[in-house]
Amino acid sequence: MSESKQSQPITRRQRRREKICAVWLFLGDVLTLALSFPLTAFLSAHLSHMISGRVFQTGAWDMQRLWIFAGLSIVLLLWLTNKGHYRKRQDYAAEAHAIIKSVAIIALCDSFLLFALKYDFSRLWLVSNWLVAALGLCMVRPLVKNLLIKFGLWNIPTVVVGTGEGAAQVADALRAQPYLGYDVREVYVPDEGDNLLTRLNVTAVNYVILATSSLPAAIARDVQQLLTRARVPFAFAPAVHGLSLIGMEQQILFSHDVLLMAVRDNIAQPMARVSKMLFDYVLAMIGLAVIWPLLLLLAFLIKIEDGGPVLYRQRRIGRGGREFDCFKFRTMAVDSDTRLQMILANDPRAAAEWAADHKLRDDPRVTDTGKFLRKISLDELPQLLNVLFGDMSLIGPRPITTDEVEKYGDDIGFYYSVRPGLTGLWQVSGRNNVSYARRVELDGWYSRNWSLWLDIVILLKTVPVLLLRKGSY
């Protein structure tokens, strides 16, 4: 049987699944946009009436305005279709980023059209309409995908082709991202006596991912050519451990089978540092202006429990290896350092836990108020002052002590390249449930792949982590 005939069932299965999923995702976006129009018109009218006491004319039901919104919505849907939103598999953060950018551009076009046509319209309704549309799309899209996953439509049976640790890492990474829908059935080791296409048809696999770093060059080339000629959908996962992946640019050499991937150090760009600094300062000042009554209340509770100081200062390592005083609400007894030495000297299990993570799960030094503060990380709110002083950032690696520097080994340079943060990738990835070695890896990944959008995503993910108290003690 020829390769093309062998691959036909694979291709048909894949295309059938893609079409079904694309239709449902597209319909979900259409419904979201359609509902955002009357919903925001109604809410804007009532909100304005409550504030000003006047009857509010939104212009929402004027046919000319209706046609403009419908036309721009169609343009938005076509743009999302062209960008592969209904067929590509990408993580939620990248998907939401693309949706928000696209809606923002359409909103600007809407404003320009209404201004150019000298149309009398509600600015409140205009802004809220597209804002609700963007938020709605970001909420409905994962709901639809989760339904498709539940009914087994978005899940795509996948086989990873490779050997050893490299292939296992690729398979584990795919399984850890269920939103992508890659259902890894097995890790297949290519064998000269085995026909890969026959195996794929027998096991009903629709997609292939090549862990090229784990395969000899000749075998990897043969497998790629086999799948390409047979038109079997596949991707390849090269060895990129320790590289900056976000912002990596590809370059194709014309008429040659050579692909260059240019690595870019995002955080080293001057404009990137300026934008991150402005982001930190603005949000820190807004945060302090909003929560200062809460800070006073927490300070009062700490003071009346044992009469000790409200704030606790500890020397930590910041950007470039510079030490600074890190502020926290005091959550331990006043003589906590003395107690720690006694605990470590008399309890071998506690000593081993402290040596591994520099934390104790059941720390007897913590006060009753401190236990409450630690549960939802309220003890770290004073670090907003560190942000304003320029010692810390809102998002970044957790600030470490001098004793922890050696645990980073050769990767300490990644830690030194950014300011430590109140929250970060470690906090939204399991916090204290994550090993210290994994924490070092996460800090390095954040430093290499920084972007302002990544900071926003981590900040948004921090909220449910704090409320659900995942990994906190």
Protein traits:
globular, four-stranded parallel sheet, alpha/beta, 16 helices, single chain, 473 residues
Structure characterization notes:
The chain is an alpha/beta fold and 473 residues long. It has three domains: 148 residues, no CATH class; 84 residues, 3-Layer(aba) Sandwich (Rossmann fold), CATH 3.40.50.11410; 165 residues, no CATH class. The protein is 56% helix and 10% strand. The chain contains 16 helices and ten strands. The strands form four sheets. Strands 2-1-3-4 form a four-stranded parallel β-sheet, sandwiched between helices. Helix 9 packs across helix 10.
Helix content: 55-70%
Mean pLDDT: 83
Beta-strand portion reads 5-15%
The largest sheet, given as strand count, sense and whether it forms a barrel, is: 4 strands, parallel
Can you count the helices?
A: 16
> What radius of gyration results from the CA coordinates?
27 Å
Tell me the domain tally.
3
Order of helices and strands: HHHHEHEHEHEEEHEEHHHHEHHEHH
- The separation of the N and C termini measures 61 Å
* Count of extended strands: 10
Strand order of the largest sheet: 2-1-3-4
Shape: globular
Low-confidence stretches: none
- Given helix and strand content, the structural type is alpha/beta
